[in-house]
Amino acid sequence: MKKILTFIFVLSSFYSMAQEKPGNEEFWETLKKHCGKAYAGELMTPSENDPFSGKALIMHVVDCGDDFIHIPFFVGDDKSRTWVLTKENGLIKLKHDHRHEDGSEDKVTQYGGITSNTGMAKIQFFPADQETTDLIPYAANNVWWITVDEESFTYNLRRIGSDRYFSVKFDLSKEVDSPGPAWGWE
């Protein structure tokens, strides 16, 4: 009887482990819960020369599908930035869509990276991809990461081998009004 109970325990443990979702799927599901909602942010790396300092920072999880999430990031009246997350071959890709006020693409746009593994449920890392290296050679060592849980969302950038570090944190416990659509996404 003891052997049977041990076998059942091992089998049920194996079954429950097999049923767990990969970290990136849990991450995706947590983020999608915020679809349609906007949140205010705070610069976690303020400096005197930072063009984001002193400006209202708002993210709006505006559009969510099975394999994409669009998140405009508003800096004051500037609606030029949208974070575009897509699923690709079981991984998550982050791209930065930059537009001018007339909706046309900026010359520096569509840079970012793809996760190298499924990551964890609350954090995903995006090392710079080849497209980014070709477009912005000095950004070849960029690593972006996003964290998300029930209370907050952070967007972060570190340029390895330099002092470049940027972080903004959004409070997911309080919705705010969205400034409207990002430029080029009407």
Automatic annotation (TrEMBL):
Keyword Signal: yes
Keywords on record: Signal
Annotated signal peptide: 1-18
Domain of life: Bacteria
Designated name of the protein: Secreted protein
Species of provenance: Mongoliibacter ruber
